[in-house]
Amino acid sequence: GLWELRVDPTSSLVGHTLADAHLEFPVLAIWHQNQALFNPGGSARLEAEDILLVSCRSDHLEQVKAKGLR
Known about the structure:
The protein has two helices and four strands; from the N terminus they run E-H-E-E-E-H. It is an alpha+beta fold.
């Protein structure tokens, strides 16, 4: 399914790239403030309150909660 996940300000992913995040599913877009980045590459940097559009199974959502995505 498609899911929207918000980067929590306390997430260990804040300031790191998508490549550093080691997510096991594709990130289709990142919304940062009022800008959308579609098909972001591994060098895209994650910031607090960014919204990620991801494609994954619902059982993968437990992994993202541990990384500070909600």
